[in-house]
Amino acid sequence: MSFPITRLRRLRRNDIFRRMVCETVLTPDNLIMPLFVVPGSRVKKPIVSMPGNAQLSVDTLVEEAKSIEQAGVPAVILFGIPSKKDALGSEAYAADSIVARAIEGIKKAKLDLCVITDVCMCEYTDHGHCGAIKTNRDGQPDVDNDSTLELLAKEALAHIRAGADMVAPSDMMDGRVGAIRGALDGAGFSDVPIMAYSAKYASAFYGPFRDAAESPPQFGDRSSYQMNPPNAREAMREIALDIEEGADIVMVKPALAYLDIIAQAAQRFDIPIAAYQVSGEFSMIKAAAANGWLDEKRTALEMLTAIRRAGAQLILTYWAKDAANWLR
Ligand code: PBG
Fold it and tell me: Using the 8-state DSSP alphabet, how is residue 225 labeled?
């Protein structure tokens, strides 16, 4: 049957009909808010390229976490900017690291929030790469996979000891989920989940984040460990391996330019899928909205809904707090 019997506009006619046949629901429970913590007190240093976001000291971060909780967002993910960096990123796994103090601050405030930590070396190394550097067989400096695994495992363990509820390795070393799972289990934390940045692409959309986290690589780029954007089949291998190594949630990152990867992963794997709507996805809309070219709220909610529709259960987004408030 087709026109004039079939008329798809019938169920678009009013808001009630549209609500009744709505296929995709976005709720605050789907959202995770990224936060950047720096040393000091009463710090709220705006991140110019990401309007509305700021580097926060522990005290101001705890206040922000309270308002995120009040908006109904269930989780935050913490990124640390240490006071000093070195070749092996020792601040990443120090017991009193900036991230550890932020976790303790949030936990002391007894907020109803899941505290996730980003586990990576790039914010803590003076060279800005995501692991330890060694000279490779071409005589070039490169990130050494296997020695980095120990550092990442130590970092994850330090975050969990400080009270974090979940760790999220974002480095893209081979075998890191297994290494972290082993370290956590060995220390009695077998009940702590891992959200793996499984299909993380070497993306131009991370531009503004590198200012926020002060972590641009000082030489070269991240293409020897992050995924090559043209590849989709390889993403399924990355995800399958992370699941095998014990990941509880797998992530695709960025989101907007990788909706096909999210959709394929959701069809293929029965595991919760997260997607990271990264800094560039946020900043480009903010910039267009500031020029009056796009409506920020409508555009942001449309993008978030599209990420849900593709198959992501969880979305890491700089709009988490605003979107939760818009949705109420
Ligand atoms: C750390 C990390 C990055 C992001 C999240 N974790 C930067 C990178 O890999 O270069 C990007 C987040 C964003 O752009 O919002 N490895």
Answer: T
Cα separation values, 36 from 80, 89, 301, 305, Å:
6, 17, 23, 25
Query: Which residues constitute the domain of residue 309?
Result: 25-327
Does the pTM surpass 0.85? The reply is: yes
Asked whether residue 319 is assigned to any structural domain, the reply reads: yes
Query: Would 8 be classed as within a structural domain?
Result: no
- The string of pLDDT tens digits covering residues 272-312 is 999 999 999 999 999 999 999 999 999 999 999 999 999 99
- Which atom of ligand 1 sits closest to the CA of residue 172? 16
Taking the CA of residue 207 as reference, the ligand 1 atom at the shortest distance is: 14
Q: What is the domain count for the chain?
A: 1
| Pocket-forming residues, ligand 1, beta carbon under 6 Å | 118, 120, 122, 130, 170, 206, 209, 222, 278-279
* 17 part of a folded domain: no
Where do the H-state alpha helices sit in the chain?
Answer: 15-20, 58-71, 98-108, 145-161, 176-186, 207-212, 233-244, 259-268, 279-290, 296-310, 320-327
Residue 44 is assigned to a structural domain of this protein: yes
User: What residues are labeled active site?
Assistant: 200, 253
